[in-house]
Amino acid sequence: MTNITKHISSAGFVGSGNVATHLAIAIQEAGIKIDAVFSPNKSNSEAFAKEFNCRSLEYYNDFEYDTNLIIIAVPDAKVEKVCKKLDDNGKLYVHTSGITPIESLNSKSRFGVFYPLQTFSKGKELNFAKIPICIEAKYGEDRQMLLDLARKLSTNVSIVNSEKRKILHLTAVIVSNFSNHLYHLADEILGLNGLDFNYLKPLIHETALKINEVHPLDAQTGPARRNDKATIDKHLQMLKKHPDYQYIYQLFSEQIRKKYHG
Amino acid sequence: MTNITKHISSAGFVGSGNVATHLAIAIQEAGIKIDAVFSPNKSNSEAFAKEFNCRSLEYYNDFEYDTNLIIIAVPDAKVEKVCKKLDDNGKLYVHTSGITPIESLNSKSRFGVFYPLQTFSKGKELNFAKIPICIEAKYGEDRQMLLDLARKLSTNVSIVNSEKRKILHLTAVIVSNFSNHLYHLADEILGLNGLDFNYLKPLIHETALKINEVHPLDAQTGPARRNDKATIDKHLQMLKKHPDYQYIYQLFSEQIRKKYHG
What is the ipTM of this complex? Predict the structure, then answer.
């Protein structure tokens, strides 16, 4: 192994999407230099390079010699393939994927995982300070370097193996993507009835914040929780022109009802 | 009509559950006297009376003469029946239900609706200031009195008829009760794998807050949004011992996928 230092001084990115961008902001704010970015999407890559005052690479392996961390922030399905295109040059390679096992990087000598458990969207600023960052690494020394880096970004850092990380990722999809789908579905129904989505925002916020103080099992309210079949039937009737939504309503109401009323 | 004044000086409650309690806190803080409570649940009723320093009634119609607003905060299905037990004595009767039409109170001369669009749980303090309060009333003068009262509690007050209110209620169930069900489901999966629900809290909060800045359609992330079938299949495989959850996962992923990828 070459190029091992005790801390990360400069990082390179492969990928220039939402995860790469938000992570680069946090890393740069923590005082780590962003050396360069490689991305097949040239316009994204150049925008990224401009934002972080770094180079946009023509080739995978043009990172500086003293850039000791390469962050592969590409779609889950591409991690392994992309990693194989990178030289095994003593740098530490990490991916940022929840579902992808650490072994997907074992074409390299030194590898690990730097998984921020969060939803990243363009145009939405993020405070990394409380975001859980899940670390894994082949070697103890690299693990420590990644822990040190993560702790510069967040107070919520832990070592999580690939088996547990994929459970976190699965549940993250459920609470984030699926909840957001419910928000979108509600927005569509409101729109069809000339009502504004703003009506629901305080409720959405309160529902999410309530879990800080009340377990989701105790926090549940509403017709299914009360076993109020008359209201459930009225709602189902209101959704009769939207079989997809009616189906979700029926499924959720039945699951909630069963949980509390057997 | 008797007993009409231009503003509400004292309110009585029928019902002593979560909605009644949270609303009574806000009303009392706004300087309105709570006269009394009637509830068939005597221990709830007495706890309520103690909390608000008011009387717990033995009979439905023992409210003071100068109590000019009676708030019927009982389960949706019971509103009409409960209202019929109350004397038509010139007081203004309102219910707090989303799904229940205003006409359910037409056994009385003066009636209306005071619907706070929020999820109310025991042990979770609420700030009413931004909660949407939807007002409806048979008479213009009563409507104005209810608007004046609501504006003492919240900056987010509007007149909403029964048809639109039931749409708001339907979508409230979808974004709140169903999202909370997803939180609970995730908590169960984490628990089975020795992982703590705390991991997901920052993500749940961010997902809910993101809609302030980004429309839910643009805020969507994750495998279904990306049409990443390999990750979806891995997640479905992980849920094979939980057919109920697997079913939700499949349904949501397919609906999200279709929305973005046809």
Answer: 0.94
